[in-house]
Structure formats: structure tokens, C-alpha cells
Specification:
By secondary structure, the chain is mainly α. It contains twelve helices and two strands. This is Solute carrier family 35 member F1-like protein isoform X1. Its main location: membrane.
Length: about 290
């Protein structure tokens, strides 16, 4: 990490941790809006994702076109990255929508399928995060987010229709056609788009400042932020252990951020070792 840009010592740690928590909070907002849309009778995970990618494209795509930049990475790599991210987002959102809309009941009739979906979604998210970290550190976030949003929209549109699950039709075209389009439903889609924009625009900053490991560790608090949101909106009561666990996760993130070696620090240490070796060589030559 560039110490001139982020500061040193405790300020750098606070910057990284707080930035990660903003990403985690935005992810909790996405889950909340997805859950709310399911409760209102709309089950459309790809359409929700489309709103997120649309907001990213409108902002960063405009900036990219204004700068008249040329792609520094081939477009097909962005298609692959967008495809992986869309699948991970779908398997995360699909579980939220199915559980909140009551599909399959609450008895957990097919736990193996649920485990497979969770594992698959985690794998897709891991691949997406590592790939995004690589391209962000190589070309910057404007190009990455512009192409990421554009191809994410394209993949989402292509996958909105041919889906079914155990004989239950979850074609989004039909779901959207029969959806009760009122102000509350529209606000959930708008809210998801804004939260998705926050998540995607802040993610490259975390990946650039720290890396995919700390990014995924920061997301451990997303469920806790979701509890906080439900407490504030629905006035639900939660056990005090939630707050204790939140505290412990935060302490763990601070410890990890404090002890993590960033790329710039590693390069400085390597350069220092190299300079030390070069300084010793003449002295050794004189002694010989």
C-alpha cells in the first residue's frame, strides 16, 4: 500500500477496516432489499443484479467514455469475470429469495442442494474477487468497473429467462409480468441498485488497498450488519452475543490489517535488502 496515499500506522489500518465495513454494510443492504422484494411477492434475482450492473455502467461507463481510453485488458477477460460474478450473485440472492418467499418450506427438505448452492456461490465469489483484484491493480478501477458493469448487464439479460427448479417455474419474465408493481416494490429495486453500486464501487478500493483475503474477511460482518438493519427498521430484539461477536470480528480484522504485509512494503524491504547487499560487496572486496 502506498503510505503517502493512505497514511501510515494506525490510520492505514483504520482506513482499510472502515472501508471493508462499508463494503460489508452495502452487502447487507443488498440482502435486505432482496429479502424485502421476496416478501412483496417478486422473485427476480437476475433482475435485481441487472439494476446493480446498470448503475455501475451509467456512472463508470460514462467516465470511461469521457476519458476516451482504450482497453488495456482484452474484452473477453471482462466477459469471463462478469460471468463468474453473475453466477455468484445469483446463487447468493436465489437462496435469500427462496427462503424469504417460502419456496420449499421451512423444513429443509433438500439440505444437500442448499449446501451445494452455498459452496458453488462461494467458489464463484472467490474466483471473482481474485480476478477483480488482479485487473484492478493492473489497470485501475474505472476501466474494470465500466466493463464489469456492461458485461454484467449482458450476462444478466441472457440468463433472466431459461431457469426452473424442481418443476417450479422461476422464469423471471413470468415473475415480472405478474409482480405487483407498486411504489414499495420499485423502491426495493432502486435500493438494491444503489446498494449494489456502493458494493461494486468500493470493492476495488479494498482490493487495491489490501487484497482479496481481507476483503472476504470483512464480509464476515455482513450478517451482523443485516441484524442491525432489521433492528432499526423492524425493532427486533437480538441477543447481546451478536454485539459481542461483532466486536470480536472487528478486533480480528484490526489485528490482521496491522500484521499484513502490503505489496509496497514488501517491495521496499526487498529493495532495502538489495541495497544492503550492494553496499557490502565493495567492503568485502577490500578485505579480500
Amino acid at each position: 500500500m502506498n503510505s503517502a496515499k493512505y497514511g501510515g500506522g494506525i490510520w492505514r489500518v483504520l482506513y482499510v477496516v472502515l472501508l471493508g465495513q462499508l463494503v460489508s454494510f452495502s452487502m447487507a443492504l443488498m440482502s435486505f432489499n432482496a429479502s424485502l422484494s421476496a416478501n412483496l411477492g417478486v422473485n427476480a434475482p437476475f433482475t435485481l443484479g441487472f439494476c446493480s450492473y446498470l448503475s455501475i455502467t451509467l456512472v463508470f461507463g460514462t467516465v470511461f467514455l469521457y476519458r476516451r481510453q482504450k482497453l488495456q485488458i482484452s474484452w473477453y477477460w471482462y466477459i469471463l469475470l462478469a460471468f463468474v460474478d453473475v453466477q455468484g450473485s445469483f446463487l447468493g440472492l436465489c437462496l435469500v429469495l427462496l427462503s424469504d418467499s417460502g419456496v420449499g418450506g421451512g423444513g429443509g427438505s433438500n439440505p444437500i442442494l442448499g449446501d451445494v448452492l452455498v459452496i458453488a456461490g462461494t467458489c464463484f465469489f472467490g474466483l471473482s474477487n481474485v480476478g477483480e483484484e488482479y485487473v484492478v491493480k493492473k489497470v485501475g478501477r474505472v476501466e474494470v468497473l465500466a466493463m464489469f458493469g456492461a458485461f454484467g448487464m449482458l450476462v444478466s439479460i441472457m440468463e433472466m429467462y431459461p431457469l426452473s427448479l424442481k418443476g417450479r417455474s422461476i422464469f423471471e419474465r413470468k415473475s415480472l409480468a405478474v409482480a405487483p408493481w407498486n411504489q414499495a416494490v420499485i423502491l426495493t429495486f432502486v435500493g438494491f441498485g444503489i446498494a449494489g453500486f456502493m458494493f461494486c464501487s468500493l470493492t476495488p478500493l479494498v482490493l487495491e488497498a489490501s487484497g482479496a483475503t481481507l476483503f472476504n474477511l470483512s464480509l464476515l460482518t455482513a450478517d451482523m450488519w443485516a441484524v442491525v438493519i432489521r433492528v432499526l427498521i423492524y425493532h427486533q430484539k437480538v441477543d447481546w452475543l451478536y454485539y459481542v461477536s461483532f466486536l470480536f470480528v472487528g478486533i480480528g480484522l484490526i489485528i490482521y490489517s496491522k500484521t499484513e504485509k502490503y505489496p509496497s512494503e514488501v517491495s521496499k524491504l526487498e529493495n532495502a535488502d538489495t541495497e544492503r547487499q550492494y553496499k557490502l560487496l565493495p567492503e568485502e572486496a577490500v578485505r579480500e
